[in-house]
UniProtKB/TrEMBL annotation:
<dbReference type="InterPro" id="IPR006311">
    <property type="entry name" value="TAT_signal"/>
</dbReference>
<dbReference type="Pfam" id="PF00496">
    <property type="entry name" value="SBP_bac_5"/>
</dbReference>
<protein>
    <submittedName>
        <fullName>ABC transporter substrate-binding protein</fullName>
    </submittedName>
</protein>
<dbReference type="GO" id="GO:0042597">
    <property type="term" value="C:periplasmic space"/>
</dbReference>
<feature type="signal peptide">
    <location>
        <begin position="1"/>
        <end position="40"/>
    </location>
</feature>
<dbReference type="GO" id="GO:1904680">
    <property type="term" value="F:peptide transmembrane transporter activity"/>
</dbReference>
<dbReference type="InterPro" id="IPR030678">
    <property type="entry name" value="Peptide/Ni-bd"/>
</dbReference>
<keyword id="KW-0732">Signal</keyword>
<dbReference type="InterPro" id="IPR000914">
    <property type="entry name" value="SBP_5_dom"/>
</dbReference>
<dbReference type="GO" id="GO:0015833">
    <property type="term" value="P:peptide transport"/>
</dbReference>
<dbReference type="InterPro" id="IPR039424">
    <property type="entry name" value="SBP_5"/>
</dbReference>
<dbReference type="InterPro" id="IPR019546">
    <property type="entry name" value="TAT_signal_bac_arc"/>
</dbReference>
<feature type="domain" description="Solute-binding protein family 5">
    <location>
        <begin position="105"/>
        <end position="457"/>
    </location>
</feature>
<dbReference type="GO" id="GO:0043190">
    <property type="term" value="C:ATP-binding cassette (ABC) transporter complex"/>
</dbReference>
Length: 549
């Protein structure tokens, strides 16, 4: 990959000002980003637990997968942002509509059809005849209404609320197999978001304590695979649901997904003639050649995955936008991409990655300029600044940290690195402990591609991230949130795109929570055993169109 052309930093003057959740269990960092325990850094469990046998050969053997993220985040589909749990839930549950994992095009899942016209304020869906949950009970309109009422309930905080509440008014039962979604205003982008409302059995999850059970890993859906066992910090097992009659049936009789966060044992599990797994995600760049030489296919997906910095804006001097800008400008992103990412990344030139349909370069692009960084710090009256970077210990993030330290040390900022388990980092955030700067991984693409969803996931007056950054009460933030809500309601697609790009300029300039680099995520698999694998540009795997060779 050629080195990237360095651009002069573009820092403009502040423009004229032109959504308490606390997803204690939502876990989303590295998969979209970093919410409490998503990438919980945990090691694999005992070998006797991980090895379920039957992974050697034959069409009826167990598919063994290695996931580079923790399986001990929330499994509640209305709450989770955990990479492991979201990927697993996509095999266990269905939405009315689901989306292809790569193109993100919606297709009929529990519903019989995608609406032909999404431009109105009423969408009607008929449920698939014969669809049943894994306990044998039929899927009904009551189950659909049950889930959406939870999501829209003003007294219940869920992550999914942020994806639906702004545009969805209510969901009504027409009869046992038909429902109507009533919108507040035309919102065609909502069609692809329906995959984020996984339909759950009311007779199971309306019981006292059932949502806590869902958080801990109880998963009963209508999808092609049913969960058979769940061991936090070790593995989760699945088997094909015999009565599934939907569009993407199970191709594997059984699956065993191992959670191995540490890079070396994860790579070892899929390496060599006696490899214990057929597929793994989150492959370190340094191991690509080794795996390819061993006969594995290794492919990457470029998307929103990023290393971001988040500043505590209640802590001086990080309340000063010039300081935040200076620290971004000081980072040698090209060196980070060359050394840590082995060429598999690009410097962030917007909050969005370059492949996003709404992308354009932001007006503030933080190209490497240490002299300008020093000048901005001087303008802010900052001298002898010492910073501790509280960071998640996701392997590729840890690889990037030395470049940040070297870059900041070089401009006279004494920098200490403090990588910790992801759970520990965001427990501190939830407890409102003091910090200066957080470095972590995020990838909102696990929720979808539309920029409105991505930006509201990260920014809003009642947003988790803004609570962590302690910025929501800032006057610039309040104006920004109004601009974002106006863009959500804009019916004209091109005007909406322009409005989104304009408010992203403000997000870029303020640099409260902002990406440093966007990188590729690598997936490796044995092509002699598996076909139909497509590498995702976001954490996890999707095996709904894969099969044994």
């Amino acid at each position: 990959m050629p080195r990237h052309v360095r651009r002069s930093p573009v820092i403009r003057d502040a423009p004229a000002p032109t959504r308490r959740s606390l997803l204690k269990y939502s876990g989303a960092l590295g998969a979209a980003a970093a919410v409490s325990s998503s990438l919980a850094a945990c090691s694999a469990g005992p070998e006797s637990t991980n090895d379920t046998g039957g992974s050697g050969g034959g069409k009826n053997s167990t598919l063994t997968a290695v996931i580079g993220y923790g399986n001990d985040g929330s499994w509640d589909p209305t709450q989770t942002a955990s990479a492991f749990c979201m990927a697993a839930n996509n095999h266990i549950y269905e939405g009315l509509l689901d989306t292809d994992p790569i193109s993100r095009e919606p297709y009929a899942a529990l519903a019989t059809a995608v609406p032909g016209d999404a431009s109105g304020t009423s969408w009607k869906f008929e449920l698939r005849p014969g669809a049943t949950f894994h306990d044998g009970r039929p899927v009904t309109a009551d189950d659909v209404v049950f889930v959406y009422e939870r999501i829209l309930d003003p007294d219940t905080q869920t992550l999914a609320k942020g994806f639906f509440a702004s545009w969805l008014k209510e969901v009504k039962k027409i009869d046992a197999r038909n429902v109507e979604l009533v919108l507040k205003f035309p919102f065609p982008d909502g069609i692809s978001r329906l995959t984020l409302a996984k339909i759950m059995p009311k007779h199971v999850y309306s019981r006292p304590g059932a949502w806590e059970d869902a958080i801990k890993g109880k998963a009963i859906g209508s999808g092609p695979y049913r969960q058979t066992a769940h061991h936090p910090k070790s593995n989760t097992t699945f088997e094909a649901y015999a009565d599934y009659n939907g569009p993407r049936p199970a191709a594997f009789r059984k699956m065993n997904w191992l959670t191995i966060v540490d890079a070396a044992p994860r790579v070892a599990k899929i390496s060599g003639a006696s490899a214990g797994a057929q597929i793994a995600d989150n492959i370190p760049y340094a191991n690509i050649g080794q795996l390819e030489n061993g006969g594995m296919s290794v492919q990457g997906g470029s998307g929103m995955n990023n290393l971001f910095l988040m500043f505590n804006t209640e802590r001086k001097p990080f309340d000063d936008v010039r300081v935040r800008q200076a620290l971004h400008i000081a980072i040698d992103r090209d060196k980070m991409i060359e050394v840590a990412l082995k060429g598999h990344g690009k410097p962030a030139s917007s909050f969005l990655n370059e492949q996003n349909p709404s992308y354009r370069p932001a007006k503030s692009v933080y190209a490497y300029d240490p002299d300008r960084a020093k000048a901005l710090l001087a303008d802010a009256g900052v001298r002898k600044l010492s910073i501790e970077i509280l960071a998640v210990n996701v392997s590729w993030i840890v690889d990037c940290l030395p470049t940040i330290k070297a870059s900041w040390d070089a401009i006279g900022v004494e920098t200490t690195l403090s990588p910790q388990e992801t759970t520990a980092v965001f427990t501190k955030m939830d407890q409102k402990q003091d910090y200066q700067v957080v470095a972590a991984a995020s990838n909102p693409n696990q929720f979808g591609l539309d920029a409105d969803l991505i930006m509201h996931y990260n920014y809003g007056p009642q947003n988790l991230w803004m609570r962590y950054a302690r910025w929501a009460d800032d006057s610039v933030a309040k104006a920004l949130f109004k601009d974002m809500d106006r863009a959500t309601q804009e019916p004209d697609a091109e005007k909406k795109k322009t409005m989104v790009q304009e408010y992203i300029d403000i997000v870029a300039e303020q640099a409260v929570l902002y990406p440093v680099v966007h990188n590729e995520l690598m997936t490796a698999w044995n092509p002699k055993r598996l076909s139909g694998i497509r590498a995702q540009p976001y954490p996890g795997i999707n095996l709904l169109q894969a099969e044994w060779v």
